[in-house]
Amino acid sequence: MGISRRALLATAATAATALPVIRARAQTQKLKIGVLTDISGLYQDIVGPLAIEAVRLAVADSGLAARGIDVEVVAADHQNKADIGSNIARQWYDRDGVDMITEGGSSAVALAVAGVSRDKNKAYLATGPATSDLTGPACNAATIHWVYDTYMLAKSTGGAMVRAGGNTWYFITADYAFGHALARDTGTFVEQAGGKVLGGVRTPFPGTSDFSSFLLQAQASGAKVIGLANAGTDATNCIKQAREFGIKATLAGMLVVIADIHSLGLDVSQGLVLTESFYWDLNPRTRAFAERLRVRYPSRRPTMQQAGPYSATMHYLKGVADMGVARAKADGAATIAHLKSMPTDDDAFGTGLIRPDGRKIHPSYLFQVKKPSESKGAWDYYNLMGTTPAEEAFRPVALGNCPLVKV
User: Fold this and answer.
1) In angstroms, rounded to a whole number, what is the distance separating the alpha carbons of residues 298 and 381?
2) Which helix (H) or strand (E) holds 253?
3) N or C: which terminus of the chain has fewer CB atoms within 10 Å of its end residue's CB?
4) What is the CATH number of domain 27-148+282-362?
């Protein structure tokens, strides 16, 4: 049976209509971002699911879909174990086609993932870890360190507290590398500002839940400030028990964030002094970002470690759009170099830059937790005590011993 002229015309018309669709599909470029975080453990409220949603928000805000760039976000739980984190990173890079990893969790995990990323020539934007070694001896051409580090926390809280009158200190320190570094660095800034460290005690890590004897030692020292060189449940347990014992010294949380304050409540945490590089209610831009994220995760406001993946991912996507998807996928070190050459600007952290050692810089803020009578409601928790400018907040490049930097 012959084909009618009408059928031929209809077929031709259908083919003509389909061609642009086929071409559009062929031209779609794909990126894959991996969010490596603590989904079920000790730090899930500090990073975890909300950090994943922050990355997805950055992808939506970037507008890359309208430019034919399809960005997929995958996530995994590193369980705060370096071997698990590094194995996931290798699998993502080798088998699953991940182009960039962000977040990264604890310092040990981050250092391991940074090494894998260097070896695989893939971009790693670390936002959760505290160790300043990522921009010091362990720095590499594939890694940028976002948000904060132990040096920033120590300088902001230590020096500023002395200037505000807290000139004698006693440290309660988690007995591992993170706690040691934080107490040491904070003590240095206390003394440089004219203060004095009266003593300190190291607490077993992990597994300590009763801090009563350590707190009583701190109180007996007569120090005006008790520095908590710990984090997570260790820090919150110290704060709770200090209130139970009626300790009058000012508590300085060296790594306490707004999720911890929400968990503790203002009755317990009021008066605590802490440093963060982000607060959702800091300015109109941070409030706008927090509201967009709240649509995706209504029950919480972001910590600085949850705002970080948004900021880092936004900058990464701007860089990829600028240099081209194919080149970014092919060379992680070249992508990181390009990101360093671009000024940073987003609603979470405002304007900033990335130094040659991979340190992303922005201001740090010293906050004091409000009294219950001062708060207007849930998540309205901080009074701003002071600001350290971006160029002063982080360790000078020359002091870091980063092999990428010639001084």
Assistant:
1) 18
2) strand 250-253
3) N
4) 3.40.50.2300
Longest pairwise C-alpha distance within the chain:
103
| E strand or H helix that includes residue 31 | strand 29-37
* DSSP H helices in 280-389: 284-296, 304-323, 325-330, 332-341
pLDDT tens digits, one per residue of 361-372: 999 999 999 999
* Radius of gyration for the chain, computed over Cα atoms and rounded to the nearest angstrom: 24
Answer yes or no: pTM beyond 0.85: yes
For residues 191 and 161, the answer to whether their CB atoms sit within 8 Å is: no
Strands 123-126 and 143-145: parallel
Q: Which residues of 287-319 are buried (b: 16+ CB within 10 A; e: fewer)?
A: eebbeebbeebeebbbbbbbbbbbbbbbbbbbb
Residue 8 has pLDDT above 70, yes or no: no
Which residue has tokens 């201001």? 363
Residues 6+ apart with CB under 8 A from 69: 28, 29, 30, 31, 320, 321, 325
Does position 12 have pLDDT exceeding 50, yes or no?
Answer: no
Q: Can you read off the two tokens belonging to residue 166?
A: 């807290």
Tell me the CATH class for 151-276+364-393. alpha beta
Average pLDDT, stretch 184-204? 95
